[in-house]
Amino acid sequence: MTKDSTWFIIINPTAGSGRVNRDWPKIQAQMDARSWSYIAVKTTGPGNATQLAKEAIEKGYPKIIAVGGDGTNNEVINGILLQKAIPCTAVTYALLPIGTGNDWIKTHKIPRRLDHWMTMIEKGKTSVQDIGLVHYQAEGKTASRYFANVAGMGYDAFVARIAESQKGKVGNKLFYFYLVFKCLAQYSLKKAKVVFDGQELEEVYYTIHAGICRYSGGGMRFVPHAQPDDGRFAITLIRNISKLGILLNTYRLYTGTIGKLQQTDTFYAKKIRVESVGDEATLVEVDGEFLGETPVEFSLLEKSLTLVVP
User: Fold this and answer.
1) Where residue 258 sits, what CATH number does that domain have?
2) Which of the two ends of the chain, N or C, has the fewest CB atoms closer than 10 A to its terminal CB?
């Protein structure tokens, strides 16, 4: 058993409302039945998956599997990008999706059924995708985070912040869907300035999205025009819209037709900066994880993640 042929598996036992912890013995039995070479470690809390991935690669394990949802995926990918032992593209990464939304896998068509997923791993087909880097403000300081899927500002981040405080409940997909609509009554639209590729737009926005992949929020497509490896963010800006207008047009987020809404503008860009206009900051989340607020800057690391795909 060599490190190069051994999968280092990072397990988030709390993902999917604890489903990962319940299912792990069955998953492990299937891996053993197929004679997989692996080392498995469970995370101990928020941020631990990033540290485990970084340390595993630095110790000579270039094959990483994450077991969990979109949040676990984000943490492990951050570990891959933060390590300096080998080029990030020399790491082979796979996600076993057991979470609430499982949005990142939808763009890549990664299977959720265990036997299909294991067959995919054994075939070893890989692809590459771009990764985003966001700089933002948190507790009065500048911080940064990598992300692999979609960044949301405005209403999306407002919901993510509330969801963060109710993590036990949000493991339920229906509860998250309920939360998205419940929060409308509490939310007031913010004015912001969006600067990208020579353009500068200042409007009152419902949401601002920068996407690498297409799906977020449990299957919604705010950025249906996103391509994970084209070296550009897909941008969707939804301008001032009434709460009734939001409710009547929510179906567009599931049909991929949000760009047809009169209040929507779509673009592509390599770099984006968002600033608040007035006293209230605009909030930001990435891959479903609430981060902080404006000013926010997005940049792209082209084709920097190597992942296993069907």
Assistant:
1) 2.60.200.40
2) N
Q: Which residue has the higher pLDDT, 75 or 184?
A: 75
Q: What is the pLDDT of residue 195?
A: 98
- Domain carrying residue 298: 131-302
Same domain, 230 and 135: yes
| pLDDT for residue 166 | 66
Quote the tokens at residue 161. 């912040």
How large is the average pLDDT for residues 67-90?
97
Q: For residues 163 and 182, give the distance between their C-alpha atoms in angstroms, rounded to a whole number.
A: 11
Closest C-alpha to 182, from 155, 150, 210, 207: 155
Q: Which helix (H) or strand (E) holds 157?
A: helix 155-164
Distance (Å, whole) CA 22 – CA 7 = 21
